[in-house]
Design goal:
single chain; 336 residues; alpha/beta; Four Helix Bundle (Hemerythrin (Met), subunit A); Rossmann fold; 2 domains; three-stranded antiparallel β-sheet; 10 helices; 39% helix
């Protein structure tokens, strides 16, 4: 079975707490942080201690369980849980998995509101996590079959185990290809300004013994022109009804370059990333994050004080530029 040596979540049965790998500490330190309150979940998502659309959804589901657990004997428990749901929903606007998970687990809250304990809500959170593990494996199998044994693949941001509950979306596919083709080589975009590629993806791949090379974001076109990229694969934070996708800023530029150089461009995403309520990518809300993430790296200033900054965290890639979307149920070929 395809596997990874990386895990993002741990459920501590003794303390009855979810422990989350602190991605802000990587790659220097591997540290799991126990979640103790709903505030911890809100801050973990908004501060990007945990990130990646599927992982955010899983985290939010457990956040609702913690809310239910703390308010279960209060006559106003439903109103209090709904208030916490709003707080969790307001953390990050682009990844639809967050809202999908919150709506799903709130249905369980309503169905079991008169139970003696919120155990059913905990079980639903566990199920959301374990379903993501299974979807990752199915995507990996479909993706490896679709892409085949290639030599060089390029990925952007981090769509690996750190972004999910399992082996990853894009990196899950890469792990599956690597099992069939151990000589596979991965180009890793650094992914400015938050450096998810440099800090996280390269760490994941090295931990699993997959040959990779870190590049700056502006090197991709050069490598494509040299014939050193056989395919590109990324994850997604939201997929519209027409199959436009929102993903980490810089994805759109890669898709344009891939189209020019006639390189296959793939997206890997679970069912929870699809948003049928949005007709096209034009309707996707793009999160604007703090200027500090652009002008500072690891608390060190790299730009003049007072400089103006734009920091959209995501961009939208139109479906016309996508070769295929790899899902747990097969591959959607966007240009066929």
């Amino acid at each position: 079975m395809i596997h990874s040596n990386v895990e993002t979540f741990r459920w501590n049965t003794q303390t009855q707490q979810l422990e989350i790998l602190d991605q802000l500490a990587l790659p220097e330190m591997e540290r799991f942080v126990p979640m103790k309150t709903v505030d911890d979940f809100v801050n973990a998502i908004s501060d990007m201690l945990v990130r990646g659309a599927p992982a955010i959804g899983i985290t939010a589901a457990y956040g609702i369980y913690y809310s239910a657990r703390s308010h279960w004997n209060d006559p106003q428990k439903l109103a209090l849980i709904q208030s916490d749901k709003i707080r969790l929903a307001n953390t990050r606007p682009t990844a639809v998995n967050l809202f999908w998970a919150l709506e799903r687990i709130m249905k369980t809250v309503h169905s079991h509101l008169h139970d003696e304990s919120p155990d059913a809500i905990l079980q639903e959170a566990h199920t959301i996590w374990h379903e993501d593990v299974e979807m990752n494996l199915k995507m990996a199998e479909w993706g490896a079959k679709e892409i085949g044994n290639i030599q060089n693949i390029l990925t952007h941001c981090n769509a690996g185990a750190l972004a999910t509950g399992g082996i990853g979306t894009a990196l899950g596919v890469i792990r599956a290809i690597h099992e069939n083709q151990p000589s596979l080589h991965v180009w890793v975009d650094e992914t400015r300004p938050y450096l998810q590629g440099a800090r996280l993806t390269s760490w994941e791949l090295m931990k699993d013994g997959i040959n990779c090379t870190l590049i700056t974001d502006n090197m991709s076109a050069y490598l494509m022109k040299q014939g050193l990229v056989d395919a590109i694969i990324v994850g997604a934070d939201r997929i519209a009804a027409n199959h436009d996708i929102a993903n980490k800023i810089g994805t759109y530029a890669l898709a344009v370059l891939a189209n020019y150089h006639k390189i296959p461009f793939y997206v890997a995403a679970p069912d929870s990333t699809f948003d049928p309520n949005i007709a096209s990518g034009n309707e996707i809300v793009i999160e604007e994050r703090s200027a500090n993430e652009v002008v500072f790296i690891k608390n060190r200033r790299i730009a003049p004080e007072g400089v103006k900054v734009r920091h959209p965290a995501f961009d939208v890639t139109p479906h016309e530029l996508i070769t295929g979307i790899i899902t747990p149920n097969g591959v959607i070929h966007c240009n066929s």
